[in-house]
Amino acid sequence: LNLHNMYYDPSRMSEELMYRMFRDAGLPAARTGYARLSINGTHYGLYSVVEVTDDPMLARWFEDSNGNLYENAENYCDLDDGLSCFDAEEFDEGSHDALSAFIDAVQTPGAGWLAAGQPLLLWEHYTGFLAMEMSLAHWDSYSYDLSNYRFYHEPTEDGWTLIPSSTDLGFGFRPWSYSDCGRHGVDPSDYTMGILSSRCLQDSTCQAAVHARILEIADQLEAMDTSAAIDELAARIRAEVDEDDRSYYGS
User: Fold this and answer.
1) Quick one: CA dihedral 221, 123, 23, 103, positive or negative?
2) What residues contact 221, with CB distance under 8 A and at least 6 apart?
């Protein structure tokens, strides 16, 4: 069980909505739910239950779930910092050779990086992930903050993709910047911290692909009727939120 206390999310909806939006776009992302947590009779309040990123989850999204899965070992660590930046959560391939080749490719100088890197990327997943980060102001992630992300290597296609992690600070909300509370990371042009995002937005072909995906996501979210989705979620968790006196925020 992977329980999140949603301590910094005043809506208690960010993970539920954001992971769903990734999944609805055909992008690998965890399933979520809610739990009322009690330990030895003591009520601990409302928690988000987030699916663990492991073989069963990978098997739902990829033809081959026997690849290596990496998580950033620390914030502000990226491919151009080398192998030490990553913890292997799944090591089915038995070596880091694919990651080493990927690191070399994305550091190819100048315009040649796309020719070297594109064959090693699951292109639709890659451009979709970048577009979704920008569209949802998911700043606490790869492109904006170099934090909370995973890389998965699909061995059959020899392709890499990004998988979102820790979406409790989505939709431009950052509780440590009260002057811009609710407006943090809302400019897509600022999503350039990660090497895969910065180099993409500097390349006209890659940038155009991401912009096209942003328009697709806009259509997806409009069709979803986000206001109705929020109202449904609020009705589902309202009683639990009202009873939860451990939250950083009131009901």
Assistant:
1) negative
2) 21, 135
The pLDDT tens digits of the residues spanning 192-205 come to 999 999 999 999 99
DSSP 156: T
pLDDT at position 247, please? Answer: 78
Question: How far is it, in rounded angstroms, from Cα 153 to Cα 240?
Answer: 39
Residue with tokens 């997806």: 220
Q: What is d(CA 221, CA 228) in angstroms, rounded to the nearest whole number?
A: 11
Both structure tokens of 160: 């890499």
Closest CA to 129 of 46, 241, 19, 239: 19
Q: How many CA atoms lie within 13 A of 150 on its CB side?
A: 25
The pLDDT > 90 percentage for the chain reads 87
What was the pLDDT predicted at 198?
96
Give the residue ranges of DSSP H helices in the chain: 14-24, 55-61, 97-106, 112-117, 123-135, 142-145, 195-201, 204-224, 226-243
Residues 59-84 as b or e (16 or more Cβ within 10 Å = b): eebbeebebbbbbbeeeeebbebeee
Query: Is residue 190 within 8 Å of residue 144, measured between CB atoms?
Result: yes
pLDDT tens for 36-61 read 999 999 989 899 999 999 999 999 99
Amino acid at the residue 239: A
Distance from C-alpha of 114 to C-alpha of 95, rounded to nearest angstrom? 25
CB atoms within 10 A of CB 37: 17
Structure tokens at 94: 């038995």
